Request: fold
Amino acid sequence: MKTEFWTEVSGGQWLGADVPPWVSGISNDSRTIKPGECFLAIEGVRDGHDFVADAERYGAGCVILSRAVEGVRIAQLLVRDVLTSFRKIVKAHRNSFRGPVIGLTGSYGKTSTKDTMHLLFGPKSLATVANLNNTLGVPLTLSKLNEHNDIGIIECGVDRFGEMEEILDVLNPTIGIVTGLTPVHSSQFGSMEKIAEEKSKMLIHALVNKGLAIFPEECVNFKQFKEIESKSWIVSSDKKAENYITYARWADGVVVLSSEFGEEFYPLPAMSDGQVRNCAISIFLARKLGIDHDALVPRLMRWKPSKMRGEIIKNGEKTIYLDCYNANPASMMDAISNFKKMFPNPCRTFIIGCMLELGDGSRELHNSLGENLLPAKNDIVLLIGEWADHIKHGIERSGSICENIHVFGDTTSAAKTVGALASNSIFVKGSSFYKLCNLLPAMGIKH
Reply:
């Protein structure tokens, strides 16, 4: 990232040492800053100005701040408002990048789709790292775009209405993707219609840029998606049409059919139905961007689940299906279905944490989860969290004859029971709030 335009777009002025002609990115964490990066001194719970010296010691090339700091040798860009100036700088930098920029959003499946695209597009692609997918994380990621990158794959998460517009102002995507919709953050959004309205802004922005918009068929049920259906690529497991990406799961892979590339088969490792759909989106987009079938096949065979998102952990005879980064109704049922396919025999254990931020629908959505869980008689079910009784009620309402259902208020109180489990096939999924990964030591696993 060149620094020559920073004063012009930020309205700030440089102080102190010689200004580096370029930086390799911008970071707001002095502990993990890399040599050559710019440190962002944000005033929050902890004041970033107090850590400028630390950032210098770890190799920062310069700092953006709102008041000068004495005793450091690196150049200081003094601005009126750090975050506002930072966003202006990154916006100008992103708009100087000539390659495609993918904006990836949705209620679920964002990270696994992003990781699949990164795998398929190769090492010259830049992809979001960890959870840097909000109004701060997106520009931090974009700041790392450079001349060695040929594409940006940017994951975008929103949990309040209007947040997407803040992200889009900096992101300016040429390709917009929505992976799916489900009632998450309903307490903030109020309704599925509002969630759909917010997520669809990504697609509309990409279309305004004369780019691509891709989303699953069920989204057409919402007005904003219906209005752009004819201009977009729609992903479907059965419908065939001129602007549809139709995929069919096979035992050892997936067939992807489109009017542009015809019918193509791709072998895949074992994955859930949702992950197969995400792969179909990724495959189609890779083909659109000029990567041929034969190059994609070996890359797909290296696919593996993202950490704590369907991750398979083996410990002796035990196999743990770990998917506890987060949970919502759609991702929960997709993971449960995949686990049951992998382990069809009874005597399994389901450790399920509750789903959060579902608003007024929380009770019924947890009841529905229980109704659709359908554990076998000899399965063991451990339910954790404030809505656990409602999941249990749903299991009972389904007519299940499972005799081993246990309810716990939190993860700590479940640890002793988990440590005594005799099952060799264990499913673990729930909201990250419940920290279900803390149960792994009780199973003899370091993670």
